[in-house]
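Q: I'm building a small set of examples for a reading group on sequence design. Run inverse folding on the following structure and report the sequence directly after it, with nothing in between.
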């Protein structure tokens, strides 16, 4: 799974992709910049189009540059993205990955009708930009099935090799009327099952626990600006754990590391900790920010690499139980791992997982097996528990 490090043109430090920087991280293989930043500063936009994004940012060609379309900014300021300007920027600045010019965000607090309107407007944009490498966007939301159906009904969109998946941030950050964690997980599972042959990019994955879910569901790439945002608030991340406040900056508050966690930070081998130690993490100003940001990104990269190594070695199941201490996501990780093992090894679902899938399906759909019974894990859960027979007649009866 590729970790795409979100950058800000306001302050490109720490230059984690730059081999000459004390904060250089060899594991950085992709970065993301927002079109918003270039739209705001005409001189920067023109310069990037003149020499290309790689040269403008000083990023080597072997590191991919992802472009974010800045949809949230334009919706809250100008109303719509200037499409022709965006198209020109993509053509001349030459990012390695770029989405449609604008998507319309179905925030959790919206009514169903409002979310459906967002879905229609986003799908209209997906259809309008079905050529020239533009990546279509769909959203984790109450209308995820409508997004899926719309993509499946279009030959051009079905032929796309990649899909961008938004909506996880407001739901995981518990925005008003946010979807339950379980429903977010169900949406992700559903999208991965339907688009099994496509590269999926998940927008806005910031925490180590969320990385586990993304990796277990075979998400191909995720982007994160959380490594910088946390650093600016005096926060560092710990492997397999949550955020810890190591520097008092303004009104920000958080949980401080305990003794064992300070020991983990003392022993950290990331470039920032090796160069500047705990004083660097605790520091204020640009130096403290760079140390914390570098440390946070290093933790994300290391966590993703460890997850992949453990999965390939077949030791993930015994490792994550002791390693991952996030109680909110623990049950979801357990489900995701069980489903992955079943999918990869064609093994039988254990009774606990089958029961969980069954209860989840019935709760979501009023006791009916119909809507999700065509999904292999759900169907197998019903079969496993004897709720339906294996023949078509029994399945048909379960759906009525």
């Amino acid at each position: 799974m590729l970790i795409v490090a979100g950058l800000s043109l306001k302050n490109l430090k720490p230059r984690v992709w730059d081999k000459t920087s004390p904060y250089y991280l060899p594991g950085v293989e992709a970065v993301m910049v927002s079109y918003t930043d270039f739209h705001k500063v005409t001189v920067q936009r023109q310069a990037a189009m003149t020499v290309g994004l790689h040269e403008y940012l000083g990023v080597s060609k072997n590191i991919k540059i992802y472009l974010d379309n800045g949809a949230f900014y334009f919706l809250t300021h100008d109303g719509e993205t200037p499409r022709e300007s965006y198209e020109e920027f993509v053509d001349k600045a030459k990012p390695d990955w770029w989405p449609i010019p604008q998507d319309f965000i179905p925030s959790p607090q919206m009514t169903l009708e409002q979310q459906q309107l967002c879905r229609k407007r986003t799908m209209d944009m997906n259809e309008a930009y079905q050529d020239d490498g533009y990546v279509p966007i769909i959203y984790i939301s109450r209308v995820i099935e409508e997004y899926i159906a719309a993509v499946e009904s279009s030959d051009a969109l079905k032929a796309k090799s990649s899909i961008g998946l938004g909506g996880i941030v407001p739901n995981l950050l518990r925005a008003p009327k946010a979807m339950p964690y379980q429903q977010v997980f169900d949406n992700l599972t559903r999208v991965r099952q339907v688009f099994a042959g496509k590269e999926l990019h998940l927008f806005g994955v910031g925490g180590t626990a969320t990385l586990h879910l993304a990796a277990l569901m075979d998400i191909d790439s995720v982007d994160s600006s959380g490594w910088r945002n946390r650093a600016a608030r005096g926060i560092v991340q710990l492997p397999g754990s949550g955020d810890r406040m190591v520097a008092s900056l303004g009104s920000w508050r958080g949980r401080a590391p305990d003794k064992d966690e300070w020991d983990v930070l003392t022993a950290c081998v990331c470039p920032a900790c090796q160069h500047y130690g705990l004083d660097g993490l605790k520091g204020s100003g640009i130096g403290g920010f760079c140390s914390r940001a570098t440390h946070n990104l290093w933790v994300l990269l290391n966590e993703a690499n460890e997850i992949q190594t453990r999965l390939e070695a077949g030791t993930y199941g015994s490792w994550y139980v002791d390693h991952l201490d996030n109680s909110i996501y623990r049950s979801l990780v357990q489900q995701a791992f069980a489903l992955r093992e079943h999918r990869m090894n064609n093994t039988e679902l254990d009774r606990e997982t089958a029961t969980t899938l069954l209860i989840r399906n019935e709760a979501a759909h009023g006791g009916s097996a119909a809507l999700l019974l065509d999904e292999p894990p759900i169907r197998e859960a019903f079969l496993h528990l004897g709720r339906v027979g294996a023949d078509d007649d029994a399945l048909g009866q379960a759906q009525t």
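The mean pLDDT is 86.
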